[in-house]
Amino acid sequence: MFALVDVNSFYASCEKVFRPDLAGKPVIVLSNNDGCVIARSAEAKKLGVKMGELYYERRNYYRQNNITIFSSNYALYADMSNRVMSLLSMYAPRLEIYSIDEAFLDFTGMAHTFNLEEYGREIQSTILQRTHLPVGVGIGPTKTLAKIANYAAKTWKKTGGVVELSDRSRQRKLLSLIPIEEVWGIGRRISAKLRVMGIYTALDLANAPVATIRKTFGVTLERTLRELNGESCIELEEVRKVKQQILCSRSFGKKVLDIETMRKAVCDYAERAAEKLREEKQRCQIIGLFIQTSRHASGEDYANSTSVKLEYPSSDTRDIINAAMRGLDSIWRDGYRYYKAGIMLSDFTNSDITQFDMFSTQKPFKNSDELMKTLDTINNSGLGKVWFAAKGGDSGCQMKREMLSPAYTTNFDELPVVKAKM
Amino acid sequence: MKLELIDSESIINIPLFLDRVPAGFPSPAADYMEERINLNSTLIKHPDSTYMLRVEGNSMIDANINDGDVVIVDSALAAKDGDIVIASVDGEFTVKRLKSHPPMLMPMNPDFQPIHIGDAQDLQIFGVVTFIIHKAQ
């Protein structure tokens, strides 16, 4: 048996923990640079705020409806997430952290000793008491059914946020109510295809012939079908899968006309990509770069990309900036209005021991790992920011976070205030 | 000059014994070696449910909680009669002593009035105050 536990409207709920005045009130959280809505409290959902809608287009609506708006506060969310995950790990011998706000728990061997629904409610009330965050719990014999149970817990208020789905007839009844696109791992494209085949609900898929599904969609969907029928095929992944690529790209607020401005932007992306690479504890050997003009803009179109291979796998920002700059020189053309650029790192290795090319002229920087670690520590401390001179000033690239809440749990100078005035 | 950033979490305290260690004979002090005091583990029993809040106001001065102090609050503990708690009342956090019969939030300063917890009031206990940090200077 598996459980899927996730926090309801995670970012918005985190913002509410230290703001008792916002209890029962609509709250939304914006993406980096205050671009669009990435989280909505239940009250904001009720007011019709949609995921991903653009902040500047709807700000008047938010004001008229007294919706409280926050910039994303990742220091707070990461700390609250760690608390939730650490508490969840007490409830099962094995845990898979699936995302910042959800985790699978493995209840194998526990079904006979525990009433799993009661156990789920205990998890829910403990997390609420200790972190003040509301969670939903779905329990089922497979990860896919646990996901569906969780969806049901969210969708139907009467469940109280906990659904246990070990009973086969209950499974079938629920599957008939779940639209096919809500099934774990089924994207929009596959669900459109399935609909053409007359498969509209999770139950339709569960009843479909295995051979046909495998032949048409491959083994992944076959596994989903089996999981819907209670046969566990998807293992718990205790160790997070290592990324195979890291991409950093953004469209510019103002079109870029000269190579100097483009250099600064590319350098900024290179820096962030290298940081992510080190977070993954990986080194890369291929650095891809692309620049493009807007397809909708009148006039000539230009888009080009290139990739540069390093002589040794590296996670040193300096190597990545160097490669990106060489790449930029080879694809840059004057006279265009560029609107987007990006960097992609690939060909990862995690090994510290590297076989160097005998004829290689380049050598890794001395003490590179120590320097990069120091850089990352400074930049993550929130105290200051160190960056590479090639990027120019920090001004152009700094994030817009105008409605940022305090780092309540991670900065001693920003603790929440308790009044002793009544 | 060589600069090195020291990560305070990873500092390992190594006790230094004042007695010399005679070669070939074990130190009799080795049995008395203890770990250094770690404030985190001493003051915080449940790290996942512990929060710190800064106090504003004087209604708890008889409980040694003064304006500007920081309180350590554990949300894992069930609040019982006589505990100092953080409660949210009418959309604001307040620190008070909890009285169960009848349910009341008691200030600890004669200049302030108790808060009766009626049905009308929206009250939530956020956690129990376990330690008070007061700056001496």
From TrEMBL, chain A:
Pfam families given in the database record: DUF4113, IMS, IMS_C
Task: Give start and end of each UmuC domain.
Answer: 2-187
The entry's keywords:
DNA damage, DNA repair, Nucleotidyltransferase, SOS mutagenesis, SOS response, Transferase
Q: Quote the CDD domains the UniProt record gives.
A: PolY_Pol_V_umuC
Q: Which EC numbers characterise this protein's activity in its record? A: 2.7.7.7
What SUPFAM superfamilies does the entry give?
DNA/RNA polymerases (SSF56672), Lesion bypass DNA polymerase (Y-family), little finger domain (SSF100879)
Superkingdom of the organism of origin: Bacteria
Output the PROSITE patterns linked to this UniProt entry. UMUC
The UniProt GO MF terms for this protein read: DNA-directed DNA polymerase activity
The record ties this protein, via InterPro entries, to: DNA/RNA_pol_sf, DNA_pol_Y-fam_lit_finger_sf, DNA_pol_Y-fam_little_finger, DNA_polymerase-Y, DUF4113, Rev_trsase/Diguanyl_cyclase, UmuC
Q: Which family does it belong to?
A: Belongs to the DNA polymerase type-Y family.
NCBIfam families membership: PRK03609.1 (NF002955)
Q: What is this protein called?
A: Translesion error-prone DNA polymerase V subunit UmuC
- In its UniProt entry, the species of origin is given as Providencia manganoxydans
* Gene name per UniProt: umuC
TrEMBL record, chain B:
Keyword DNA damage annotated: yes
Question: Gene3D superfamilies recorded for this chain?
Answer: Umud Fragment, subunit A (2.10.109.10)
Molecular function (GO) terms listed?
Answer: DNA-directed DNA polymerase activity
- Which ranges carry the Peptidase S24/S26A/S26B/S26C domain? 15-129
| EC numbers | 2.7.7.7
Family stated for the protein in its record: Belongs to the peptidase S24 family.
Q: What is this protein called?
A: Translesion error-prone DNA polymerase V autoproteolytic subunit
| Organism name | Providencia manganoxydans
